[in-house]
Design brief:
The chain is an alpha/beta fold and about 270 residues long. The chain contains twelve helices and nine strands. Bound molecules: S-adenosylmethionine.
Length: about 270
């Protein structure tokens, strides 16, 4: 049965404020599941079940799927589209308000696979990057420009605090570009699938907290040099800032966006000793 027909039959009205742009193309759905590397041993956390098209495709390959959905009016739709999927649990709650530790306690090791609601994409990904302990990877459909930012390399205009935060935890790649024509309703922008594979100890750093503070400081004002941003953020004298940069092997006069995540880590390690 066509998803559109089921939605119509239940009198469902799309809610823009929840970022409801659903997928229906079965080839694309299967490709996303394959991009995420889901198999019979995988527990999947999905955010935003929608009409259940991706949930169902995931359930066909995964050991278990737990899917959050904020919109209760989708309950009868999902009861129909997910009928017979014994390894799926849909939780009708706002994922942003759910304590991650409790979810992890329930799931054990898991991966996130989702066609994300656009209005919370970056904070949601940052939450997994910064707070998750049992997440092994994230494969998410996001706006193409956001995916480019997630996977950017140092020195490019798209490279920013989010890129450096993700890079500390995992390898990020854009695995697929997706035309806006494949969504219902059709959004105004194209999308892409970003995949972050978490790797323990990928970029060694003594303090993750200081790494984050250094990154935040470096991108606080893109027009300023790194030295000036450090002076402002950490209340350093110019001499102290220059000493710190020299100790981390970073040349004077550079801007934050030219630093690789490894250089941010070196700088954070020096800052930790201050
Ligand atoms: N997975 C479906 C698909 O691919 O067709 C739906 C994707 S749609 C882009 C995003 C879904 O996330 C919507 O169904 C929306 O209602 C849901 N959503 C939005 N905000 C949410 C939140 N804070 N917690 C849980 N679900 C949310």
């Amino acid at each position: 049965m066509e998803i559109r027909e089921i939605l119509n039959r239940h009198g469902f009205g799309f809610k823009k404020q929840y970022g409801q742009n659903f997928l229906t193309d079965s080839n694309l759905l299967r490709a996303i599941v394959s991009d995420a590397g889901v198999n019979e041993t995988t527990t999947v956390l999905e955010i935003g079940a929608g009409a259940g098209a991706l949930t169902r495709a995931l359930a066909e390959k995964a050991k278990r799927v737990v899917s959050y959905e904020i919109d209760r009016t989708l309950e009868p739709v999902l009861a129909e589209t997910l009928a017979g999927c014994k390894n799926v649990e849909v939780v009708f709650r706002d994922f942003a308000r759910e304590p991650l530790a409790a979810i992890e306690e329930k799931l054990g090791e898991y991966v996130v696979v989702a066609n994300l609601p656009y209005y919370i994409t970056t904070p949601l990904v940052m939450r997994f990057v910064e707070d998750a302990e049992k997440c092994r990877g994230i494969t998410v459909m996001v706006q193409e420009e956001v995916a480019v930012r997630f996977a950017a390399t140092a020195g490019t205009p798209e490279y920013g605090a989010v890129t450096a935060a993700i890079a500390l935890k995992g390898r990020c790649e854009i695995v697929r570009k997706v035309s806006r024509n494949l969504f219902t309703p059709r959004p105004n922008v194209d999308s892409a699938i970003a995949k972050v594979t978490f790797e323990e100890g990928r970029i060694p750093v003594k303090s993750t907290r200081i790494y984050r503070e250094v990154v935040r400081a470096a991108f606080a004002s893109r027009r300023k040099t790194l030295e000036n941003n450090l002076i402002t953020a950490f209340r350093l004298s110019r001499e102290e800032a220059r000493r710190v940069l020299a100790a981390a092997g970073i040349p004077e006069g550079v801007r934050g966006e030219t630093l690789t995540p490894q250089q941010f880590a070196a700088l954070a390690d020096v800052m930790e000793l201050q």
